[in-house]
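tool=predict chain=A
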Amino acid sequence: MRDNADTAGAAPPQTTVMWAPELLRYDFGDHPLNPVRVELTMALARELGVLDRPGVRLLAPTPADDATLRLVHTDDYLAAVRAASVDPAVTGHGLNTADDPVFPQMHEASALIVGASVAAAQAVWSGPTRRAVNIAGGLHHAMPDHASGFCVYNDPAIAIRTLLDAGAESIAYVDVDVHHGDGVQHVFYDDPRVLTISLHESPYALFPGTGFPTETGGERAPGSAVNVALPPGTGDGGWLRAFHAVVPGAVRAFKPQLLVTQCGADAHRADPLADLRLSVDCQRTAYLALEQLAETVCGGRWLAFGGGGYALVEAVPRAWTHLLAILTGTPIEPDTPTPATWRALAEARCPQGHPPATMSDFPGAAAATVPHRPWDPGEPADAVDRAVLATRRAVFPLLGLDPYDPRD
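tool=predict ok
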């Protein structure tokens, strides 16, 4: 690892940010998962001074080795990815599909993302920081033996396995990507040490077609999987109501030592691949809630990843810059202007995009979080409330919680 933190006499860093330009090499070409979204995020965060704050440790990763990749993935699959990295005719194992086309040095680029996520996990568990983030990570759909949903290697799952091998006994994984976090759930479905929570658009409407409320964990880990399947068109108020009705109670009941979050930005209303209707202000509010959970339940230990997000200019860079700001200690106020130099870079990289003028989706936005009405039990007419009740009925009793008590 290459570390740019000051050393002699410096105060201990509070946040490790994994970054190197080489992380942009995870590039499928003409494809929705464009690495420019990561480039523009890091550029915006730097322009706003987030990466230069006291206590921020920028760390360049090294690729994960085969032993690390085998914590989740099979030998046959690793061999297939290596072969596809040099032979564009390779198929099988989910490779060379529209979702996961092959590209030169795909194995090396994917292993570097895993290396970044593992280093972030190690920094939080036994290193110098309580918080760490790999914005280029969050590839939560990859399965042990095949690629899926733009994801080659499952870096969050490998990072969690690394933490378990290092001695962690309870980890909560919260996934706010618009798509179900199916790969991570699959890996830990029968492991009582890991709680997976996913808020996503209904599997009836969106890839990967999983994440129903009835998916609650395997025989050896009942209650270890929590799924909130939201109806298409859910906006800020409904999404936040669902989040607060399920996530804090489940995490508190599980009592994890560490919070891991996948913060895909594709639930934004501008995203072209899904149909939830969140604002960037709502996403910022969600990150603040996750921060509070990490502080109150996990002693501040928080490991964060990026994930999906395909509004390359309009949504992703602002959402993840808000995440980086919260992780590094001070939220950015929503009405903060985006720097002119960043807007020029965004226009140069994505001429079809429309760089936003401020860090908010609402003109003249104040610094307050987005409001929502509390969830209440019963037989609700609202589709979001019905989704919440379905989740709470399915899994809350397994966690020792009352599905009808709004205090849980």
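The first helix runs from residue 36 to 47. The domain at 2-399 is CATH 3.40.800.20 (Arginase; Chain A).
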